[in-house]
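thread: overnight batch results

M.L. [08:02]
morning all. the overnight job finished for the chain we discussed friday. pasting input first so we're all looking at the same thing
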Amino acid sequence: MDEKNYNAILEYLETSYSGAKMLDDIECMCRLSRAIAAFEADPEEEIFTEDFKERYYSR
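M.L. [08:03]
and the structure it wrote out:
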């Protein structure tokens, strides 16, 4: 995936998250935050392990 598409998808996810936050849609915010974390992760990395979560939250 080229950088332009990557940035467009990430912007869409982040904008969607902001909209869900404005509407107090906790379920949608949770799903979108997971999607953002997974999208930004290294494809070779196992995601949603305790180690992954600690690194992601510490950014």
